[in-house]
Amino acid sequence: LRRVLFRSVVLRPPRLRRAAAAATAGVLLTVAGLVLVHPGWPPPGWLLVSCDVGQGDSFVVRLPGDDVLVIDSGPDPRAVDRCLARLGVDRVALLVLTHLHADHVEGVPGVLRGRQVAQVEIGPLDEPAVERQRLLGWLGAHGVPVVRAQIGEVRTAGQVSWEVLDATARRGTDSDPNNSSIVLRLVTHGVSVLFTGDLEGDAQASLRERGVELHADILKVPHHGSAKQDPAFLDAVGA
Questions:
Q1: Distance CA 138, CA 65 (A)
Q2: Does an H or E element contain 119, and which?
Q3: Is the N end or the C end of the chain the one with fewer CB atoms within 10 Å?
């Protein structure tokens, strides 16, 4: 762009040259203005962040004060630690682990690194057993209590509330850990979000057939958008 403008200035009369120079200065000032008003990270008034943890899930919900709710930790401690550090998180009121697959729990040491974690909530199925053993070792070393999610459980923190819609131990499915995921419906400052873990099609249909209130403004797509979906479930959410 600079080369083209320079050539036009050289070849055209002085009046046009001055106009071209003014236009160029205007473009530069506009770009500089855009840089100056960039809000930085995190943006003011943020409510929910999806952390870039690669293949896996990790979400951060802002709570009153300096607390946050973290849902899953992804597979990489460094990635989730970096995400939380950029948000300025020092205290985690609750870490919910929707199920025990590595791409949801192996990042837990990164959540614990230099932070106070008040409580960890897990689902009804203790599988895979190796991941459960590793998780309990990390939490035990930091003295973090562990509780199990219960269907119908409701928690509130200021203008944020969430309910456990599903925490059912399912066996004999294509993936029992996936289909036993904790499902949360959260409302933050009037915005509703449905967190579905890795729930697959049959389990989605079971939840829908129970008549559970599924509608939400934002949907965490089940199982990373795999083909194992119940279209009627997605319609019921209407995100």
A1: 26
A2: none
A3: N
Provide the token pair at 202. Answer: 């049959």
Instruction: Please name the residue ranges forming H helices in the chain.
Output: 2-11, 14-36, 77-86, 102-105, 108-112, 129-142, 176-179, 201-209, 231-237
Rounded Cα–Cα distance for residues 149 and 165 (Å): 10
pLDDT tens track for 148-187: 999 999 999 999 999 999 999 999 999 999 999 999 999 9
pTM, to two decimals? 0.84
CA 4 – CA 91 distance, rounded (Å)? 54
CA torsion 55-61-66-67 (nearest 10°) is -90
Integer Cα distance of 168 and 180 in angstroms: 5
Q: Which of 119, 120, 136 is nearest to 128 (CA)?
A: 136
pLDDT tens-place string over residues 113-132: 999 999 999 999 999 999 99
Residue 55: which H helix or E strand, with range? none
